[in-house]
Amino acid sequence: MKKFFITTPLYYVNAAPHIGHAYTTIAADILARHRRQKGEQVHFLTGTDEHGSKIELVAQEAGVTPQAWADRIAAEFADLWKHLDIQYDDFIRTTQPRHSERVQQVFAHLLEKGVVYKGMYQGYYCVSDETYWTETEAPPDEKGRRLCPNPDCRKELKVTEEESYFFKLSAYQEPLLQHYRDNPKFLQPAHRAKEIVNFVGEGLRDLAVSRTKVSWGIPLLSDPGHVVYVWFDALLNYLTATGYRPPGMAEGPSDYAALWPADVHLVGKEIYRFHTVIWPAMLMALGVPLPQSVFAHGWWTVEGAKMSKSKGNFIDPREITREYGVDVLRYFLFREMPFGNDGDFSQQSLKKRYNAELANDLGNLVSRVTNMVDQYLGGALPGKPPLDRVSLVKELREETAGIEEAMERLAFQDALNRIFAVVGRLNLHVDQNKPWALVKTDPEAVKWLLFDLVCSLRMVAGWLTPFMPVTSAKIHSMLGVRRVAEPLTPEEVLAGPSGDRIAKGPPLFPRKTP
Q1: Which of 154, 204, 300, 427 is the most exposed place for a label (fewest CB within 10 A)?
Q2: Between 127 and 8, whose confidence is greater?
């Protein structure tokens, strides 16, 4: 059976991971958990990109070998993913033999097919971005300098002339445009599609895909003086991780048939063009099916300013989790802005959402309900109720479809908005029905009122599982759900066998002082 295949980019090991890396990876984890919760088989791939001239430079500055540097930073990424409760299935590194050997095979195959050829590159190269630019793309500024067109880089370009192998990217202009037309969900979110279509429509030039002036890379089998261009190398990870081998190469263990094509590549918008132009053209050259979609999310600023090394305002995720916990970070990142747009990371906004939405709305609701069940029912839950006594649960069942639809669109903020609208309804229901007063006049009605609230909160906890897995498990445990490893069916939500007991606990989200 084909698994739902989710990927993050391979993160470049020039520096330690920050909030931007965490954002993409948590998004992939949320989607993976959602799909698993539906009973689907999922494969979630992440990893690190470890070759190129920039890695040579930073390793030299640190006084270590490029491999030692890559080992250190790759370990930092893996350790952070563990800390953030990321449940990936595979972590690939471009220095691993399973990747480098298959990249060599792919390159040899494309060379044999004639879609890669030898030539001479003359132009401009950005070491920082590992990107080639033409004279047209990087015109001289008022001082006569040619600067990297990437607004997040703007470093001076290096004039480069060297022998190189070229990939016939220009041959794939019309096939790419046709693919965009035939597969409108390939370019996601939809508002980013026009940029890519216009770029390809203006014409493509062949791409230099090897370097002779860089030693830290994968050498070509037929010409060891050349190493594979870092982007051509890194993009192939999505295939090499499946065990793919090009035609004519020796067979071996492979999950290719169970995984490919990828269902969604999650990337930052700064590398969208590489993934929606170069990568699909490479796959077309190989005769391999294209991914179902490439989804580019936006950038985070910090307190209104763009993150940059020079400003020293990169956010270390551990700084946030140290004060708020992992689940709160996961929640905030996808509650604060629509996935796909740009957003601003503000400590003030984080604390405001924490106190208002998590401490007051959700945490207080769970505490109120569990305390009232403990006080009025001796902590015991009644048996399965008659359907006419659980109006809330019947209403909330109708919300599941909208939440799932939002998750399928990767509209994570929309899903959370819907979930917390339900939390608001439940709080209002408590205030309007006043169990503390009703228990004095109609104890039987209070029993079913509280059971309705318990079942509704079980559903809320289930919806929150992909975003806040630890919090969800705590809520389920407090609400008498012992089996929390799998999602609850509507029947299980309502089952409420006699003998299940509420387990009161400390506040889920202690308020933060101003």
Answers
A1: 154
A2: 8
Which tokens is 82 given? 């563990």
* Non-local CB neighbours of 494 within 8 Å, separated by 6+ positions: 384, 385, 390, 393, 455
Chain segment 365-392, per-residue pLDDT in tens = 999 999 999 999 999 877 766 777 778 8
Whether omega for the bond prior to residue 506 falls within 30 degrees of 0, making it cis, is: no
Three-state SS at 212: coil
Task: Taking residues 301-319, report their average pLDDT.
Answer: 75
Give alpha helix (H) positions in 226-361.
230-235, 237-240, 256-259, 272-273, 279-286, 317-324, 326-336, 347-353
Closest CA to 27 of 48, 46, 54: 46
Calpha distance 173→135 (Å, rounded): 21
The three-class DSSP label of residue 176 is helix
* 189 cis-preceded (ω within 30 degrees of 0): yes
Say if CB 11 and CB 21 are below 8 A apart.
yes
pLDDT digits (tens, 9 = 90+) for 45-79: 999 999 999 999 999 999 999 999 999 999 999 99
Separation between Cα atoms, residue 401 and residue 239, nearest integer Å: 34
Average pLDDT for residues 231-246, to the nearest whole number?
96
* Structural domains present in the chain: 347-495 (1.10.730.10)
In Å, how far are 122, 128, 149 from 159, measured between CA atoms? 8, 14, 15
- Rounded CA-CA distance 21/44 in Å is 15
DSSP string of 394-426? HHHHTHHHHHHHHHHTT-HHHHHHHHHHHHHHH
Would you say how long the chain is, in residues? 514
Banded pLDDT at 157 (limits 50, 70, 90): confident
